[in-house]
Amino acid sequence: MNFGGSQSLERLGRLQEALRTLPDKPEETPESALRALWCRAAGLQLSVQAAQDHPPPPLDTAGLQRLDALIARRLAGEPLAYLLERQRFMGLELLARPCALIPRRETEMLGEAARALLLEAAAGVDEPCCIDVCCGSGNLALAMAGAVASARVHGADLSAQALDLARENASLLGLDARVLWHEGDLLAPFEAPAWVGSVDVLISAPPYISSARLESMPREIIGFEPAMAFDGGAFGVGILMRLLRQAPALLRPGGWLCVEVGLGQGSAMLQLAGRDRRYDQVRPVRDAQGNERVLLARRAVEQQGG
Question: The CATH number of the domain where 74 resides is what?
Answer without folding.
Answer: 1.10.8
